[in-house]
Amino acid sequence: MTWGDEIKKGEMTAQAITCSPVLVRIPAAVAGGIWGRIPVMERSSLLKKIRGAAAVALAVGMLLFTTAWAAGKEASSMQAVQDGLETVELKDGLVGQPVVKKALNESQRQALERILQIVPELEGLSVVNLSDEGDAIWTVTLDDSDGAAPSGIMHTRAELVFETNSGELIGFHVLNPDWASDELPAAGPAKEKAAEFARRVLGDKMKDYQMRNQISYGGGCARDEQGNEIAWATADVQFERLINGIPFLDSCIRVSVDAAGHVVDYYTEGYYKRNDSVKDSGQDPAVFPDPALAMTKQAAEGIYANLVEMKLNYVERKLLQYPEPGKEEVETRPVLQYTPTTYALIDAVTGKSLAESQERLPTSLIRLAGEGKKLVAGTPEEAIALIAAETGIDISGMKFMREDERGDNLKPGIKMIEYNWGSGSRAGNEDMPDYSIRLLTIIMLADTGQVTDFSLYDESERGKKATISRETAQETAIQFMQKHLEQGTAELEMCVYSTQDDSIPDWVDRSKLEYYGQRPAFKFTFTYTHQGIPVLDRFSFVTVDGLTGGITAYSGGNSSPPVTLPDSRNVVTPEAAKAEFLKSQPLRLVYLRPEYFGQKAPKPLLVYMQDHSYGGGQYIDALTGKTVTLEMK
User: Fold this and answer.
1) Residue 24 and residue 10: Cα distance in Å, rounded?
2) Buried b (16+ CB within 10 A) or exposed e, 523-545
3) Contact (Cβ atoms closer than 8 angstroms) between residue 315 and residue 566
4) How far is CA 266 from CA 54, 123, 161, 234, in A?
5) Averaged pLDDT score across all residues of the chain
6) From its phi and psi, is residue 107 left (phi > 0), alpha (psi between -120 and 50) or beta?
7) Sign of the four-CA dihedral 595, 64, 55, 154
8) Residue 581's pLDDT is what?
9) How far apart are alpha carbons 76 and 72 in whole angstroms?
10) Would you say residue 624 has pLDDT above 50?
11) The model scores a pTM over 0.90
12) What is the gyration radius of the CA atoms in the chain, in angstroms?
């Protein structure tokens, strides 16, 4: 398992925790759109609330990554360069293990040389790792460390992934601190650079792809123990593969470009092989439904309109503009908005909505009398002992891993401290893995020591059936929430969902789910209300383990002071908001192939879905009934 695999699993874990009821995977092109439909403020707030759990997934990767470097720190990596890159001599495994000599074969050398011609900035880097996975893919890692373990973030590192049989580039990522900039790239030049890069990589295959009109923006920041800090921003341009002239969303390409025109990321959707799934790019066009069988767009819009319902909700801190990477503060305002309760996908052949896209989470309004108990600790040792005593989490064998102090761009002036502990390992093989990694994250306010979040990530017993009922778990969650809720009576909207899905598609091989599913758990969100309307960015959540019945995750909610919210008496009708929403979210005809924990459906589907190029950063203002679009600074 590679570091790259861990990052991807971290992303999947974060998405799974964000109250998504759909275990049937939607392609990244769609999921990105669904995630994009969550307003940026709520999305950011939601990620802050689940950071303890999501950071755990990242910590898994950090644990394995750090272990790998520590194990190989005394091992030398030698490289002989002849006519480009040819021979790599590596030690793999633990110190003291035999040296394994690996060499780029002729086809690998040619494939790498071709990309070096496209990205000449990589020519001065050294090969530090070569991973050949036989008939699937091979990966080469380059950096400027001359074989030594890199320290900090101020060094250049690139990873390239190739398909073994064709030598085609399917993944590319480079991090160069000299390129770091938080300047947002201009759309026009970014599209031109991305198209040029894609043409050079794909060659004649480029005719099978079309560029999406809208681009998205990404970025982030990083710092190391030496005090170095870098921030970066990218424009992400997507190219959709066409089958029968229809976009196939499981086979897209994303090219990320920075403001200076450097291509820093290239990603092919669908090439990872998991659970014996077949690479989508090798699909026979004959298995795709004939577009001639599709109903008209007008007919699909009528079906879709009957499924959509609009719901009122508040957001205390709605972004006015897209945030800039690395910036400490963002400008916000309180809003009252309408959002749809479902985003249905319509089967273009049958006219039926896909059940997994229409599923709604059960919610209910409850009133709790908060007891106001706070969790406060002065040291990491006190914090982990406190959480163990409060929840019964088993901390035996856990070792302290890292401490991180950070701010919050949505809460200027508030500093948080995050602590991480871990234990366990990964063993077995791909067909029958033995996962025992456990990671605990605790987040505290730096000035008071109050614990605001904690989360246990446990890989054991994955795919098992829950042994406690939802009702029992709910009672446990409510009792815990009430104990730590601010003193006084509060009306909350409770949402509940389980990591287990009773509606598993009939094409899924259930025998494989035991090793690839999640540990059973029940997750409850408690959203505060105002005038009986939920406030999306002011909520807490509690997770109850489905096997032990104990609390394994908690977030105490928004620590920012409340703001004055708009009055809800003069809102437009849900019908008016629905009409505006349907106008701003037209349908498009696409192919997609459902996936369930790595297992893909036998055949792709032809569906009508929202055209997300119209929906990024938009919301329906409940007071005016008009669509509001975030501005680009």
Assistant:
1) 18
2) bbbbbbbbeebbbbbbbbbbbbb
3) no
4) 24, 18, 10, 12
5) 78
6) alpha
7) negative
8) 93
9) 8
10) yes
11) no
12) 25
Please, are residues 119 and 160 in contact by the beta-carbon 8 Å criterion?
Answer: no
| Residues 170/268, Cβ–Cβ less than 8 Å | yes
pLDDT of residue 435: 67
Q: Which of 94-98, 438-442, 501-505 shows the highest mean pLDDT?
A: 438-442
624 dihedral zone (left: phi>0; alpha: psi -120 to 50; beta):
alpha
* DSSP 8-state symbol, 108: H
Residues 6+ apart with CB under 8 A from 400: 380, 419, 420, 421
The residue-averaged pLDDT of 175-203 equals 94
* Cβ atoms of 66 and 58 closer than 8 Å: no
Q: Is the pLDDT of residue 9 over 50?
A: no
Sign, CA torsion 565/566/571/577: negative
- DSSP, res 626: -
Q: Reply yes or no on whether the pLDDT at 501 is more than 70.
A: no
Place of tokens 């589907």: 605
The encoded tokens of residue 435 equal 């996962």
Residue with tokens 């456990």: 438
Distance CA 149, CA 154 (A): 13
Spatial separation of the C-alpha atoms in residues 249 and 591, rounded to whole Å: 6
Do the Cβ atoms of 12 and 49 come closer than 8 Å? no
Let me know if 231 is exposed, middle or buried by CB neighbors in 10 A (0-12, 13-18, 19+). middle
Whether residue 283 has pLDDT greater than 50: yes
Alpha carbons 243 and 241: distance in angstroms, whole number: 7
Q: Are 313 and 533 in contact (CB under 8 A)?
A: yes
547: Cα separation from own chain's centroid: 26
Query: CA angle, 343 as apex, 338 and 344 as ends, to 5°?
Result: 140
Candidates 193, 253, 260, 251; CA nearest to 232 is: 260
Nearest Cα to Cα of residue 234 among 201, 193, 198? 193
- Residue 157 and residue 581: Cα distance in Å, rounded? 44
Could you tell me which residues come within 8 angstroms of residue 290 by beta carbon, excluding any fewer than 6 positions away? 244
Pick from 87-101, 198-212, 310-324, 357-371: least confident = 87-101
Distance CA 387, CA 130 (A): 42
Tokens of 501: 């899905």
